[in-house]
Each structure stands twice: as C-alpha cells, then as structure tokens.
C-alpha cells in the first residue's frame, strides 16, 4: 500500500502486486521503444568495446536478479544521452544488478514490497534525469505519448545536462569524463567548520579557465547526489563495504568508475540511506519511518509517497492526485507497474468502510475491508508485513468511531438502522 499525500489532501493507492499475467495491460498495450520518436543523441556514442561493469568484492547475485532481467533496458531505452543502455557507460542493466547487491535493494520479504523499491526509485530516475519530453503529448495520442515519456529515464548524467552549464563548453557532458572539472557554479562546496572537518572540498585546480575547478560536487547519477557532504558520506559508506574511492578529491569517479559502477550505486545508496532528521526514501515507501507526533496527527505516517520530495528536492509540495500535470511521480509508478506486467488490482485495494451488508440490521455499525480507495487502510496478511497487519483491528475501530462521529462521510444518516444502536466501542 502506498499513500500519496499533498497538503491536506490524501489519496490512498493500494498496490497489491504479484507475479501474474495482466489481461488489462495486454489489452491496452504499452508499446515498445521502437514505436517512440527517435531522440536526438548527444555526442558520438559509447566506445565499441570496454571492460564490462565489475565487482571487486564478487558479491553473489541478489534475489532480485532471479526475476528482474534485462527487460529493464526497455524501461530506459533512451538512457545515456539517447544512445540507450550500454555496459560501457553509467546506465545499464549490468551496472544496476551489481549496484543492487550492495545496499540490499529489492530484498524485502515479499514481491509486493520489492516492487515498491523498483517503482519508486525508477520513477525518481525519470523525474531526476529523464528526457522528460512533454512535447510528445502535442503530437501523439495520450497513451502513446505516455509510453514514450515514461521510457525517458536516466537520459542525463550531469545536473543541467545533457549540455551542462557547469562544464567547459568544449566538453559539455557528452562523455562521462567531461565532468572532471567545472566552472565556479558547479562547485557545490558547503564550507563550515563541521562539514569541512569531515568532508573538506578539494583544493585541486586545472589550467583550463573555462572549467578551472576539480572540487565539482554538482549533481551526478540517475538519482543525483550533490554537495561535498553527500559525496563524503557516500565515500564513507563505500569504505564500509570494502571499496576505497576518494570522491572528495575526484568526485567525477562517480560517473567514470565501473568496477563497481558507482553512478548506479550512488543512486541506490541515496535512496536507501536516512539523512537525519529525514528518513530514507526507501523507509517512507515501505512505511518503516517515524514521522513524529505532529506529522502523525496530520495523517503523514505509514507507507506514503509525497514526502520523498522533501528528501530529494527539499520541497514539501508532494504530489497532487487531482492534477495530472503535478502528478507525474504517481503516474510514473503506475506506468512502470503496468509495463512490467504486474497486476494492480482492486481485489487488494482494501480499506475499511462501513459494512453495507449489515448496516440495515438491528445491530451496531461495523466496518469491513472494501475494494476501493479510502483513508483507513486494511493490510492483507498475504501481502503485507506483520507489523502492518497488526494495525488492522486498530484501524477497524477507527473506522467504526468515524462512522458514528461523521456518518455523512459514508453517505449514511440516522435512517440507517445500525446508527440507532450504541457504538460497540463505548
């Protein structure tokens, strides 16, 4: 279950997912990359050959790899500046599968939770570094435009790309190595006594007046990390898993190092890692976060979507479920679910509602799981962790209390027989 919030509005999206054929997806079709307009390709393309992404620690394949295969390439056919997935460049299935072994990405207890990882992180990759060609909707049907728009993830490598204003105009970002130096605008160096003690910015320079600095901590990667303190913290985490890379002195190694593939690893690390007082994006999506008393009182708790904007962009607006133009993150999640032939079904879109089958009886009102959206959720034991299932009875009682307190929410009134009986909670 993923709840998406914005301001005081809340939309519940119960996504119960399992490995099954989906007739609806097959019927409407999700096209393929070949049916999309060809993107403009920047630069000369990847080298004809190269050493493939490698892992010096030789970690074993993750459970994710047993079912999530190279079909990822069809999700990101325009990656790497339009050239497509390439094992010679930062974004490829080969790089992703190695990276996913490290922060234990996609290794949850059931398939449904694993899919939360994939859809949420991939949706951010589309938002952060996607081609995001909104003009597709001017020339194609909405269905065809969406099929192409949502395949545009991981197009860019550098913040402001594909032609980044932070780089030398002669080497504007057409190869991963172009990010080795930058102009003053790309330094992104936060200098304070505390930060500089732990994560000092490099003092190295070049003789190139167009890009004289080596201390370039602007955004890099599919889900971009930026600023010296994030590069420094990622460096420390790498050291904890037996990988030594001096990203403070050579931050562009994040894009060029492929043994292991750091661009993918940095994105998954950022997605999985808390930044106190902010929780990890992963923990928000999975519901494993403590939102605090004030946020809980406002309904911001459990597995929800919107607050991730605060973590990745330091923005609080969230998603607007009523406005498609402001709702791309949610739409991306749904599109990826459907493209992977995973079924989202109302059979598990269950939330507590008044029991219509008994409301007319001479007995107190009750609440039961219902197959449509609501605000008081029911977690099916077959699909959700025990910690969430344990809240079902509390939520049922919450529903009953709300029926008596505000029956109009459920489109009932005093003519409904059960409301003439005292609440069973009293």
UniProtKB/TrEMBL annotation:
Gene3D superfamilies: 1.10.530.10, Endochitinase, domain 2. Residues 1-27 form the signal peptide. The keyword Signal applies. GO terms for biological process: cell wall macromolecule catabolic process; chitin catabolic process. Residues 186-317 form the Glycoside hydrolase family 19 catalytic domain. InterPro entries: Glyco_hydro_19_cat, Lysozyme-like_dom_sf. Keywords: Signal. Pfam families: Glyco_hydro_19 (PF00182). One of its GO terms (molecular function) is chitinase activity. SUPFAM superfamilies: Lysozyme-like. PANTHER family: GLYCOSIDE HYDROLASE FAMILY 19 CATALYTIC DOMAIN-CONTAINING PROTEIN, PROTEIN CBG09520-RELATED. This is Glycoside hydrolase family 19 catalytic domain-containing protein. The lineage of its organism: Eukaryota, Metazoa, Ecdysozoa, Nematoda, Chromadorea.
């Amino acid at each position: 279950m993923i709840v998406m919030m914005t301001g005081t509005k809340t939309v519940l999206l119960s996504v119960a997912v399992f490995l099954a054929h989906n007739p609806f997806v097959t019927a409407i079709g999700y096209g393929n990359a070949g049916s999309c307009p060809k993107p403009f390709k920047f630069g000369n393309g990847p080298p004809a050959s190269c050493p493939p992404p490698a892992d010096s620690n030789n970690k074993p394949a993750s459970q994710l790899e047993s079912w999530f295969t190279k079909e990822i390439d069809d999700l990101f056919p325009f990656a790497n500046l339009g050239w497509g997935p390439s094992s010679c460049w930062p974004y490829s299935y080969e790089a992703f599968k190695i990276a996913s072994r490290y922060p234990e990405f996609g290794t949850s207890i059931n398939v449904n939770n694993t899919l939360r990882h994939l859809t949420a992180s991939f949706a951010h990759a589309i938002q952060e570094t996607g081609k995001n060609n909104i003009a597709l909707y001017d020339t194609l049907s909405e269905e065809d435009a969406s099929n192409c728009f949502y395949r545009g993830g991981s197009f860019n490598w550098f913040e402001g790309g594909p032609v980044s204003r932070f780089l030398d105009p002669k080497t504007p970002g057409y190869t991963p190595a172009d990010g080795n130096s930058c102009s003053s605008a790309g330094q992104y160096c936060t200098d304070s006594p505390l930060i500089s003690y732990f994560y000092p910015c490099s003092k190295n320079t070049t003789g190139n007046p167009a890009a004289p600095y080596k201390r370039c901590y602007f955004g890099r990667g599919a889900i971009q990390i930026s600023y010296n303190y994030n590069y420094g913290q990622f460096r420390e985490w790498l050291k904890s898993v037996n990988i030594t890379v001096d990203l403070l002195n050579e931050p562009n190694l994040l894009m060029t190092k492929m043994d292991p593939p750091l661009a993918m690893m940095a994105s998954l690390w950022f997605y999985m890692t808390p930044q106190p007082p902010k929780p990890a994006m992963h923990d928000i999506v999975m519901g494993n976060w403590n939102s605090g008393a004030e946020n809980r009182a406002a309904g911001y708790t459990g597995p929800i979507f919107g607050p991730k904007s605060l973590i990745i962009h330091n923005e609080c607006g969230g998603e607007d479920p009523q406005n498609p133009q402001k709702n791309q993150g949610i739409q991306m999640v749904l599109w990826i679910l459907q493209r992977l032939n995973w079924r989202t079904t109302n059979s598990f879109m269950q939330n507590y509602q008044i029991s219509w089958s008994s409301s007319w009886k001479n007995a107190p009102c009750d609440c039961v799981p219902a197959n449509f959206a609501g605000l008081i959720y029911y977690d099916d034991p077959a699909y959700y962790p025990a910690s969430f299932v344990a809240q079902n009875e509390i939520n049922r009682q919450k529903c009953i209390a709300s029926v008596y307190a505000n029956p109009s929410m459920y489109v009932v009134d005093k003519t409904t027989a059960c409301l003439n009986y005292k609440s069973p909670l009293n």
